[in-house]
Amino acid sequence: MACKLNYVRNTSVAEHFSVLLPKQGASIPREDTSVAEPEAPLPKPCLNLQIQVYSLDERGNPKVSEERVPVTDLFGSSVFSEGVMRKRLPANVYQAIKRTIDEGAPLDPHIADIIAKAMKDWAIEKGATHFCHWFQPMTGVTAEKHDSFISPTPDGRTIMEFSGKELIKGEPDASAFPSGGLRVTFEARGYTAWDATSPVFVKEAGRNITLYIPCAFCSYTSEVLDKKTPLLRSMGALNTQAMRVLKALGNSTSKRVLTTLGAEQEYFLVDKKFAERRLDIVLAGRTLFGAAPPKGQEMDDHYYGSLHERVASFMFELNNELWKLGVSAKTQHNEAAPAQYELAPVFATVNVATDHNQLTMETMQKVALRHGFFCLLHEKPFASVNGSGKHNNWSLVTDDGLNLLDPGKTPHENETFLVFLCGIIRAVDKYSNILRASVATSGNDLRLGANEAPPSIISIFLGNQLTDILNQLGNGGEISPRKREVLKFGVSTLPPLPKDYTDRNRTSPFAFTGNKFEFRMVGSTQSTSGPCFVLNTIAADVFQEMADKLEKADDVHASAQELVHKIIKEHKRIIFNGDNYSSGWAEEAKKRGLPNICNAVDALAAMADKNIIELFERHAVLTSHEMQARYDTILERYCQEIHIEALTTISIAKRQILPAVMDYSGKLAGTVNALKECGADAETHTKVLSNICRLTGELQSGIFSIESTLDKAESIEDLRDQAAAYRDEVIPAMASARKAADSLEMLVDANVWPLPTYAEMLFLR
Ligand code: ADP
Ligand code: MG
Known about the structure:
Blueprint: E1 8-9, H1 13-20, E2 49-56, E3 62-68, H2 71-74, E4 79-80, H3 82-88, H4 91-103, H5 112-125, E5 130-135, E6 143-148, E7 150-152, E8 158-160, H6 164-168, E9 169-170, E10 190-194, E11 200-205, E12 208-219, H7 228-248, E13 257-271, H8 272-275, H9 279-284, H10 309-324, E14 329-334, E15 340-345, E16 348-349, H11 350-370, E17 373-376, E18 390-398, H12 415-430, H13 432-437, H14 442-445, E19 460-461, H15 464-475, E20 486-487, E21 497-498, E22 510-512, E23 517-519, H16 529-552, H17 556-571, H18 583-592, H19 600-604, H20 610-618, H21 624-677, H22 683-715, H23 719-745, H24 758-763
Parallel strand pairs: 5-12, 19-22
Antiparallel strand pairs: 1-2, 2-3, 4-11, 5-6, 7-8, 9-10, 10-12, 11-12, 13-15, 13-16, 13-17, 13-18, 14-15, 18-23, 20-21, 22-23
Helix pairs in contact: 7-16, 10-11, 12-16, 12-17, 15-17, 16-17, 21-22, 21-23, 22-23
Bound molecules: adenosine-5'-diphosphate and magnesium ion.
Adenosine-5'-diphosphate is lined by residues 260-262, 264, 331, 344-347, 393-395, 403, 515-516, 518.
């Protein structure tokens, strides 16, 4: 059941209060009774939602009815989950597909027909008429082409069909997707292949319901054209190398190492009536003009503030939509900037979490429109307030539940933890250039290093306790672990709380947060695939080095100690527990020899680095050809994004701002003349007018400069040089036009200003 179309709140006031008040006659215990009562059954959690549900009537036709659905039933109700498979598939087929999902066993094509039929029957019961291969081309967003299940019969009727072949393989025309030259337009063939490790689901769009099959996407020559394939390959590489290390260290129980991801997603909500009057928001996803509002985020009164009713209703519906799709939306809160919010799910394997993050971004935008909002995912929608990131919480977990980054109570004695921790420290320092490249986008250039986001310098926060332990290990001395302290409020009624071993550090780009690393440089619009497959691959590479040593060692523990000792000595420079926002850090980092690459074009050059190409080839994540193609695709995208922003800037300036300003200055000139004619003092009016005229001139020359720099950039053939021209010439020209326009905004009558203001967009709901 459960294909919801819309919710109707259906809780009476009495019902509502009955949840909060004790039942009549129930006594409230005065003191602790030592004999425990038998546990009462938990009340069935109910959202009291009425949702529209699709099912089949007695003749097998889809029907829509309304039902009340508790969250526990709603969650995953649109997913062809393991539970559904267990119920609907023959035991041997279920076992076979489980082996693929759990153990990475190759998918047996013979069982595909049986699975496809079960999927189709299940999807039709949910009201689906179509299926689609859902894949992630290098555009960063998802792609889908729907086919209906219908198969006409000779007698003019139709049956609903879906074969194993259709489930496993699709052949979308690949010519219109970016390929970086891997595929020329006349060779249009592309293939999608079912990724059985990420669950199939049904999704509604308006009244259309479709069965979605997560897929990888490659060219006719089997070269990778998408974001999923390298991620899956990198998970395999990491598993292989991490398992070697684990086995060498004596672990005989774990069979697989999985990489996990919890992606915190930041976003802005802007009232649709303002957003749709801003071409920059509509086309570029961010504001290209706008004077700073009198109030920004300086009062810190939005962060974690109580939720606005309209926003809370949006979140309510967003959660329900995501829960249906099996996305475990967990945390929601106001973020630092006005109109900024965050959602964090419960973590999953990187592959599933990446698919879920794509669904989250898409659902946010869809549900926002239903609530009269535009959801902005851009890294910097508004100058002068915080931008948005996507914190990638990443860890390594074995199939038998061991988190390799969990220090436990005695980290100094936890050999497995120390070896894996040090492996990651070495990987991040050794390959910081490609990690930096994995977050290089035009949008992120506006955010990294501003006052709200990590700088462009990659460093690791470990916290004092771990740093102490590593320092002591590095010096080869005795280890004296810190005692766990207790937090005291000084209020007798408040409980004493055990202190965490480390404080938090919000400013670090790569922070150890208890049992995982949090990679904070990722941009809010980015697919999590890129940063995660880079992290997986660089970690796999260092684990490989370690395994090579440990497997050969006579005394594995002595060898592990030696490895840890060596890594700490060599890579100490990457550890920084201080304030990454401070200007002193840039100086200090320079002394330590840490790169500070502050723009995407320079950062992306790592993709052409021989060592990096060899790294990805070594682990069979990307061939050098695929790497080159990916590099070109990303550069092309960088140029296109700035190109669109530049044209949008010109359009708004010429067609909205200049006409309004010229009109207004004409009126003002009339007033000046009238004042002079009647002998009044026109000095102030004249001054304002001449300021407006000066700024109008500056805006006009800014526009000319964008036009000429754009022409020049477009004519450059080499992609790297072209991207550099966009960065060095087009962006500064856009900035000078904006500066003039924003100053004009502060001089011109608010009633004639053609664009909704920052104050309206950030503060009015
Ligand atoms: P913060 O306090 O950093 O904002 P949140 O609670 O918003 O933290 O988000 C933390 C994220 O880290 C969640 O998505 C959570 O599921 C995820 N997480 C927790 N443990 C792990 C783990 N072992 N691997 C990956 N992600 C994890
Ligand atoms: Mg958070």
